[in-house]
Amino acid sequence: MWRNKNVWILLIGEFVAGLGLWLGIIGNLEFMQEKVPSDFMKSVILAAGLLAGVSIGPLAGRVTDQLKKKTVMLVAGFARTISVVFMLIAIQTDSVLWMVVFLVMIQVSAAFYFPALQAAIPLVVKDHELLQMNGVHMNVATLSRILGTAVAGIFLVMMSLSMMYVVSLAAYFCLVILTFFITIDEDGNQKKHISKHDSGFKSLFPIVKQLPIVTMTLIMTMVPLLFIGGFNLIVINISEIQDSSLIKSWIYTAEGLSFMIGAFTVKRLSKNMSPYTILFVFSFIIGLSQLLLFFASSPVLAIIAFVTFGFSVGCFFPTAATIFQTRVPKEYHGRFFSFRNMLDRIIFQAVLLLTGLMLDLIGLQAMAIVFGVVSLTITITFFSKYRRSNTSEIVNVKAG
After folding, report:
1. What parts of the sequence cross the membrane (predicted)?
2. pTM of the model
């Protein structure tokens, strides 16, 4: 895999674009802090971009399956680069409206880019390399997040906000250039066939329905999202409970590093465990890590909870991505990953709102119990169904 130039292009591109992304995110927060006093209006502005990305999802999936993945990635990457210009205009004119235009355009371009990227990965590596590739790819994204936020903090002191967005624009432009050098072998006849029939989500759902393991994995991704959706709110709450600002840094660092270790470890685990076993085991452990937050007043136990969560998610997500890439037919990858992207965004926002509401109403400790019980219930329910379906298959084979 490491001799494959496409792998290096995708990983370097992900790292560079990730730095640009997090520079932009920190820049967005800084700009809104200066221009938008209301926290509610801040959330409305951010939601506008998210809504645009979700609404364009069906079209993005259809286009990704009809056109070459490289073409979609190039156009979406170029659009993301251009979107930064609107943010520069917003800074120069002190206009929040131009910032909304920037957020809408960057979210729309992301709605096209990420499904195309997920659909391209199985086309540039072999099936037995997918798990390793997904793990490394997610590690690179995590590393770019850690470095991106750190660099953004330094840049805010060293340079103007406009210059920080210029650096972000340069990073996105580098991604476009790198994408030109990717070689993706796609079946032209397959593309022609797809374009002749309805290629929206309506044609995707019957396929997914015939693949219960895919449906199960989709629903089980709710387990880590219950933690991830309100991650920042939970960290802030723990900081308030412990009356310590330093604990936030420790939690973010511990979770990020443990995630990277998990994503590297999962390849080794896969030699002795099936993907489905890995999925159930770490989904269960994620539920336990949520329950562990009941003891959030203890710095040691709080960090252990996040280390456990980070490692488990590092094993869970590459495995889930591999199941999707191998079980869903390749001609449906664009639509499927677009649908999954939409679903993740909707769940993420719902969990974010639910977390904020529950923290206000019942507090962190009670919420940890609720979320932990829900996660364990989902895991145990689907594990039981999976065991029953496997047992019935074995009985049918013996009967035959």
Report:
1. 7-28, 40-60, 136-157, 163-184, 211-238, 250-266, 278-296, 302-321, 365-383
2. 0.71
